[in-house]
């Protein structure tokens, strides 16, 4: 089960049958058709539980028994598409939900009363996510929440509604519609809180924290590996220079303090600078050891 599906099923279990949710669902997933007896309303979804939920909300809100139909997609995934079909009092439902103008192209944004009321806004966002929302699995490490709208002005209103809740929402227009999206993990977690999906929020946060901890460990390991590699490379360079001195002028030609450093380095190529300092007969700091090693390298370079 995808993370998006888990969020949606949590929302269904916690839902309060709000008409504002239904308004968003119908606006984003509904379509009208005309028959002899009047208007028909079809609401489509690929999730059977969402179809049953829409059925339940309509039945409780309007005392209407819809019909649930389904057909198989012809693409490779062959998902079922469920349709909640209503052929009674469609005009009164649209009027009650203030959706008539939206379907007839007069008003494609979000109803101002929803934009101005926080509770209504939360319910609408919940319905919008149930209808066309997708959420990338946080395990992927790339955070993205999207809600698809047929109309650009509806997507922009959704972004404005999200911004009312201090979320950094943006929109992008596509060939067949527009997307309202969030890309910051903190915004996505806040969105899940706003729509009431607390279990999903906690799961998202746990995955995020685990990934961050794992990345911190990897960065630390990479830094340590880089430091070890750097130390080994520096050590090998100095050892090669000491060998060069031995084969040309001999170690005896070096000052005594450099001879001792050279002997320790060549006998213990894996020693750190601090270990070399600790092996000396006299007390010497790490910078002092480095200074003497640089002198050895400089002598070798001059040969």
**DSSP strand count:** 8
How far is it from the N-terminal to the C-terminal residue, by CA? 70 Å
Helix content: 55-70%
Radius of gyration: 34 Å
Order of helices and strands: HHEEHEEHHHHEEHEEHHHHH
- Give the overall silhouette: rod-shaped
Pfam families: HTH_WhiA (PF02650), LAGLIDADG_WhiA (PF14527), WhiA_N (PF10298)
Domain Sporulation transcription regulator WhiA N-terminal: 17-99
Family: Belongs to the WhiA family.
Protein name: Probable cell division protein WhiA
Task: Tell me what you see in this structure.
The structure is a single chain. This protein has 303 residues and is of the alpha+beta class. Helix content is 59%, strand content 15%. The protein has helices at 3-14, 19-29, 48-62, 90-96, 100-103, 112-116, 118-132, 152-164, 185-194, 198-248, 256-267, 273-279, 286-302, and strands at 30-35, 38-45, 67-72, 80-86, 133-135, 145-149, 170-174, 177-182. The protein has a four-stranded antiparallel sheet with strand order 1-2-4-3. A hairpin with a 7-residue loop joins β3 and β4. The longest helix has 51 residues, at 198-248. The chain is rod-shaped and about 110 Å long. The N and C termini lie far apart (70 Å).
